[in-house]
Amino acid sequence: MTERVKRALLSMQRHNWEQGVAAQAFLEAGDKDIAIAMAHEGAYRQHDDGRCCHIANSSACTDPCAVGEALIFAAEKTGDPFLIAAKDKLVHWALHTAPRSTDGLVYHFDHGQMIWVDSMYMLPPFLARAGACDEALRQLDGYWARLYTPENGLLAHQWSDESHKFLRKAAWAVGNGWAMAGMARVITLLPEKHPGRTRLIHRVQQLITAALPYQMEDGAFHDVLDDPTTFREVNFAQMLAYTIYRGIREGYLDANLLPYAEKARAAALAEVDCYGLVRNVCGAPTFDKPGVAPEGQAFHILMEAARNQLRTSN
After folding, report:
1. Phi and psi torsions of 291, nearest 5°
2. Three-state DSSP class for 22?
């Protein structure tokens, strides 16, 4: 099944963050040659300012960094000067030239002073992999402070520094999945005794605890976690399962969460069709209805890779 999902993913058109999450999925699944090829393509499409995977005149600031871990891997593995230079330019963008708030948070776009929860996945893991662990923590801390909503224990989707209010306060399921998965990857990349690691672990645990009461009987979730009038979708189920499998394997999540991950996984696996398309995820290109999406394909691969790693570690 996963091989069909991989083939379907490679057939899809991909924007900058979609190229990045796909490359990361192949990297974590052990398909290193594909990850390197995808990093190459991201580097070929590097903007002069350092942003990778640049197509369609994207104004995104953090999404082009989603390919960063695969790009670093490709540069280290091949020693290719072209990839090394591309990696260095992307690091410079992320650390120095990307538009940011007065307290140093990189904005989601180069206009509008917006913070999106998606950025918690797109940027900090790349920073941590590049060795800028304190900066990765600073970004995550700042995004959390802007987006956390104590009334439900979840993260809102969009905040505006310009208007000092939420642009979308909804607890978008996939957005909370981006946050969980991004923090999980940073936890792995941080030195074991880094003072910020415990803080991230607590936040991952907190989001999982807040989300689980909204799991449906079949293992799926609604598009807005606490709004049962929104459509049923399964990409958050994959993201949740991925995070739980990783956390149990690395020892910071309790094994009693495993049945929830397995239930979520079952809901997602039931949506894979004969072509390898993961149906009824929050669907591209508008993400306002169920459909298919490169990120939905990628998180199937990430989920299965994390589950396999957990099983082989026991």
Report:
1. -175, -140
2. helix
